[in-house]
């Protein structure tokens, strides 16, 4: 293999390194000699020698001045003595540092040093007065002078020894210098060998990198999506051939170093660029931390559906020169078409299931209504009044169930909540006792509790009735060969929050699921159980039990909304649904309903609500008014006109907005009330018609009718102020209450 071109640089580096080693070796030898000549002049040793000389001089001066004072008794000798004694006393401050240096230089000085310390201690207690010298003072000064002389002599001898050692060590320093040069030469040889091996390894690595780059390039070109790699400065580094094809670019646009802004300017559809501004990318790169990819779906300049994705990358060592971002472009036209087709198929399937199931339920209800009306028509004799009234009541009840079913569907689809009421379960059980036998069939024995000692619950009566009927029908389908269905209730009080899944297993039904895993709040609850003796549920059915449109029945035999509606009902009343089942143990569905309580406004104490008796319908008393009824359905229009006419009002009618406008223009007198459907054929819908007539007739009251409304629906946008909403289907008392409310609201505006 050929040598790496960087080998010449390695040789030059070897020569330079050799020159540096020789130069620095010579300098090191000279520096070593200089340090050897001045090494013993240590700062602490110099300071200690100076301290010793000053102390010795001060001691001699104190003795000389004292003897002079004894001989001549002159003041200057006394002052000289006092100054010397003061300096000796002050010398104690630096004595410990001096002692440490002396002990380091020689181990045989401990006794003189200790003696000097004691003598300085004695002198520090003297008065600086020659006449006040203690009797033993001359002896102390003499001893101190002798000990200091001993220390000075020893220090001088040690210094001579150090000088001799310095001279002896000079030859060793030369030998060490030579050894350093030889070591440097050997190091250069070793470095040359290592560098030569490194050049071979670098050549192999470069060849491997070139091969890897070619493989990566081939891989990028084989991808079905376009890839572009940009540096942190926004310049194009790499790209594949598919990029230009997917984005619909000119063949010669992509080139090395292409600015990102230039590419963004070429990808503009409808005046808006497809790529995000480079400032946003630059800000993300400056943070220096990975961020989630930025993805967008858009139409390309060639009309294709594109998915653009921008991803940042950073070098492991954090170098700014090796960071950037990758732009990928994928043509998702085929995928979107497949997703749209699949979505349409799923919607059609769900709509078919829902339509078939709802049609099945409504056919049952219509069968009950029509059958009872036919029976009532057959019993037209005076002695058949009670039986005819029974048939009419059954038809009326089936109609109300139809109304409740449509309301539940709207509430489920729109997630609207109903207003809970106080309900006695004894009334529910007495009603279900006669109804379930006809619905469930003769092969299944139905047992209902009396509910006389059960607390009232806070729930909507129609929705609770519908929920129990749904559960009963499910139980009937689980017992195709017959069985027993029990509906019972019990009062339960929890002193603390209760986990319903931890309650004891009953009758071997050990597989359970709960609608809400959070604990049930402490307090009073009513547990309503619907229990069948069927074969039970599998784990898969339990797992999907509360999902909308999930059903185990045959195609078209059910909507799959039964348990979903039961779940929605329990959520509205802030209760729970617990389903317990077991193999050959049947299924128990428990509705946990809150007890109905009220707070006394005076005492603030909660009180139990008793079931409220249904007051007799009172016909609202309103003054005779002129009303315009607009409804495209002739049957509904006739009912509304008849009810308002029976109330004594003058009623005008129209089938659409344009006809209503003409009727109002030709009417005599003031128009007091407009009762209109929201959805009318033609250019004038109910909202537009009401605004036009409200501008012409002052204090016009408005009632909006629609089958899309529920009791909790908000007022539609553009409605007349003070208008009242009337949800279809409605009855006579509901219509009259809406009329009265609309007139009262308009009068108060």
UniProtKB/TrEMBL annotation:
GO terms for molecular function: phosphorelay sensor kinase activity. Keywords: Membrane, Phosphoprotein, Transmembrane, Transmembrane helix. InterPro entries: CheY-like_superfamily (IPR011006), HATPase_C_sf (IPR036890), HATPase_dom (IPR003594), His_kinase_dom (IPR005467), HisK_dim/P_dom (IPR003661), HisK_dim/P_sf (IPR036097), PAS-like_dom_sf (IPR035965), Sig_transdc_His_kin-like_C (IPR004358). PROSITE patterns: HIS_KIN, RESPONSE_REGULATORY. Residues 357-597 form the Histidine kinase domain. SMART domains: HATPase_c, HisKA, REC. Its EC number is 2.7.13.3. The modification 4-aspartylphosphate is found at residue 677. Residues 626-743 form the Response regulatory domain. This is histidine kinase. It comes from Acetobacter tropicalis. The lineage of its organism: Bacteria, Pseudomonadati, Pseudomonadota, Alphaproteobacteria, Acetobacterales.
